[in-house]
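WARN no homologs supplied; continuing
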Amino acid sequence: MANLTFLGATGQVTGSCYLLETDSSRILLDCGLFQGSKATEKQNEADFPFNPATIDAVVLSHAHLDHCGRLPKLVKDGFKGPVFLTKASFPLLELMLMDAVHLQLRDTEWENKRRERAGKPLLEPLYTEADVKALLALRQPIAYGVETQILPELSVAFHEAGHILGSSVVRLQIKDKEHSRTLVFSGDLGNQNAPLLRDPAVLTEADVLLLESTYGDRDHKPLENTLEELRTALAEAAESGGNVIIPAFAVGRTQDLIYWLGKIQRQGGLPQQKIYLDSPMAIGASNIYAEHSHLFNIDDPEFSKVAPNGWQAWLPGLVYSQTAEESMAVNRIAGGVIVIAGSGMCTGGRIRHHLKYNLWRRNAHIIIAGFQAEGTLGRAIVDGKKSHLKILGVDVNVAAKVHTLGALSAHADQSQLLAWASHFKEPKPRLYLIHGEKTATLSLQTCFKRTGWNANIPHVGEKIIV
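OK structure emitted
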């Protein structure tokens, strides 16, 4: 008998974490950061609801921080087992976690200076660079489609999810003396409109299915409509003389945006001469993508011809902004350029500085090209309910024009989720909807009920028999 406990990305999008226990083994599916409001992020500091030293292994679906960001804390608290992941996730995990720890240590140092002046107790960082390096030493890569026995009762196979490079649908086989069971964890399923990666692999058999529901309450706009909105925003910004500011996730979204901007440029619809990629992590991720181009699903012969020469060959005018000094120089540009920077939800990183210097400008355009969780600065900008926002301690007037481009999302929409799940044969697996806010999950549950398939919505801490 095996039990599964829902510990994160349950009733919310972030903090992906699920504990699977068999008669002889305990593993985690993902161990991600909670992201969003201060109250949400406070959960990262809490002790794990299990002893990390008793976990035999971690199976990681992909390298986004909401799926991997607490792994160093797991090691810090006693975990010593292997971390199984795809080959492409291997370098991305290092990139993501080293960046995360440096940002965290910097923010902790800044906060502690403030606390010391106020006579308040100092904070401890969630983990250190040494914890990250200890975690990275535990990585064990597995190729797509190769079933691998990882523990006496457990084997795993990774299948392409099409969300970011290296992302996977996880298929776990649980075998004991009495019977064999199959657990499928969707991870984050990709949007079929994504230009670079292959569509999510189709699976047909499972006893239990954990299905993400990030966009369970809506379909994305048609891709061509979204690209036309992007062209229009670029043209309007050029006419008004303003900048275009794009918050983007360093891994996945940034590379898709570079592709589309290059495509639009070749069609004569990109008036801006300079496109600044102001993110060392996004630059590093772009290099990793280029090294794994064999995983691309390229339908564009022109891109296939140019891509081996690098992203800047595909998008002439693309400038990599690595240093803090280069970033500050970009901030002094009053108009006429495109700036792509992280973080994707505007919760940290250089994007906050670009918003501080541009959000108040009436001729500026802010392009939101990804999901914005509740409680984030990005969500506040999308909702448009506030005329002023506090950014880096400064009250900033919201005057720029905001564009939300849903079709560029890296997540499957409602119709795509339903279509992907429909391939599972009868008898249908027991279905649990995860990784979604309440409205999205409830809406997707209703859609499944219409097809005669009961979809369960678990709560945090709920335990089921697999």
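The longest strand covers residues 168-175.
OK
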